[in-house]
């Protein structure tokens, strides 16, 4: 996705060979116009998948998920990382290990909002080791919901999550796939970059 | 705002005389079409205020803030409740006490994204005791940013936050103001309800 790749090139900051900071438009400050287009792109890619609901995780998944939900005209459910006091009963939970934070947290969704009739699109801002997406897929499975696919804004292709999810049979659509952050440079996977070039 | 009030009447669940659960469309499951209209309404009300940026707080503030940002064509910044590992330097912080969770948490925004040139619209999903909005206003003040107003999706008019913010001189625009949750009934403030009736 051209607009997104340009934005990453202009504003992404390489903090280390594994950490890319995109907090100027995606996960601290948000560019609503860009994320609106990100949502449209997810909706286009999954337009014929019969999606009934989007499942994401707080906090940075919410903006792209809600924009995709706007275009697909389906509700969005976000998993919580902490239990809320007004949301205590009938939770479906999964454990998610964060390599960045080096801690395991429990994520949860109310049973009320996922059912056997649902065909879910899982959306998240980043895909690195795939733990969050796997946790969301586990919640979907426990609810008896189908997972039509996983939409990711930025995939770190050099980490193992994407391959792992595809090996498990999930359709993963990442709008930008980063090949390497070595030497402070952001390199994109050729297909993503070429798709960008073609659109431009 | 008619559409919102109808939704609260249909789907809001009164858990106690002070707690209204609206997790079917606002803060767990999200109705993107409704929140798109909520964003449009905020944008309309603050269209002549010269807003340069929206400031909100994770997680439930993000969806309405991003939709308002889409309509006002300005960036959105969300304050974090926990420090991120990739976001450690140059933070502006404020302490926020949650009456629901009975705990104080520190909220933070990167200095990079707020400046003396900014004229902010603060957005949140709920206004009860006003602690989150006050914390966001404190962050704005520490950044030297002006606050043009505060946009709230649902105000609990029987709690003290709204009055406190208005007494401090803030322009507070709440799209639905709830007068009472006594006896399991949701009563709206007359002006909000009437505005709903007029639009209908």
Automatic annotation (TrEMBL), chains A, B:
GO molecular function: xanthine phosphoribosyltransferase activity
Residues that hold xanthine according to the record: 20, 27, 156
The entry's keywords: Cytoplasm, Glycosyltransferase, Purine salvage, Transferase
Biological processes per GO annotation: purine ribonucleoside salvage; xanthine metabolic process; XMP salvage
Catalytic activity, reaction form: XMP + diphosphate = xanthine + 5-phospho-alpha-D-ribose 1-diphosphate
Annotated 5-phospho-alpha-D-ribose 1-diphosphate binding sites: 128-132
CDD domains tied to this protein: PRTases_typeI
SUPFAM superfamilies (UniProt xref): PRTase-like (SSF53271)
InterPro entries linked: PRTase-like, PRTase_dom, Pur/Pyrimidine_PRTase, Xanthine_PRibTrfase
EC number: 2.4.2.22
Location relative to the cell: Cytoplasm
Principal location: cytoplasm
Pathway assigned to this chain's UniProt record: Purine metabolism; XMP biosynthesis via salvage pathway; XMP from xanthine: step 1/1
Domain of life: Bacteria
GO cellular component: cytoplasm
Chain's role: Converts the preformed base xanthine, a product of nucleic acid breakdown, to xanthosine 5'-monophosphate (XMP), so it can be reused for RNA or DNA synthesis.
Subunit structure: Homodimer.
Annotated family: Belongs to the purine/pyrimidine phosphoribosyltransferase family. Xpt subfamily.
PANTHER family xref list: HYPOXANTHINE/GUANINE PHOSPHORIBOSYLTRANSFERASE, XANTHINE PHOSPHORIBOSYLTRANSFERASE
Protein name (Swiss-Prot/TrEMBL): Xanthine phosphoribosyltransferase
Naturally occurring in which organism (per UniProt): Cytobacillus firmus DS1
Gene (name only): xpt
């Amino acid at each position: 996705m051209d607009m997104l790749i340009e934005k990453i090139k202009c504003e992404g900051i390489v903090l280390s060979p594994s950490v890319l900071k995109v907090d100027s438009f995606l996960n601290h400050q948000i560019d609503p116009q860009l994320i609106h287009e990100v949502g449209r792109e997810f909706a286009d890619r999954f337009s014929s998948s019969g999606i009934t609901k989007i499942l994401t995780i707080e906090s940075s998944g919410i903006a792209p998920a809600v924009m995709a939900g706007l275009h697909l005209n389906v509700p969005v459910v976000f998993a919580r990382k902490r239990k809320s006091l007004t949301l205590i009963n009938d939770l479906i939970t999964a454990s998610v290990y964060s390599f960045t934070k080096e801690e395991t947290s429990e994520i949860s969704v109310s049973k009320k909002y996922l059912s056997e009739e649902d065909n879910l699109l899982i959306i998240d801002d980043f895909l690195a080791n795939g733990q969050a997406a796997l946790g969301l897929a586990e919640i979907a499975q426990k609810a008896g919901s189908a997972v039509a696919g996983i939409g990711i804004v930025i995939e770190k292709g050099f980490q193992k999550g994407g391959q792992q999810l595809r090996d498990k049979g999930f359709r993963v659509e990442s709008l930008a796939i980063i090949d390497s952050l070595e030497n402070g440079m952001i390199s994109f996977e050729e297909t993503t970059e070429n798709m960008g070039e073609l659109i431009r």
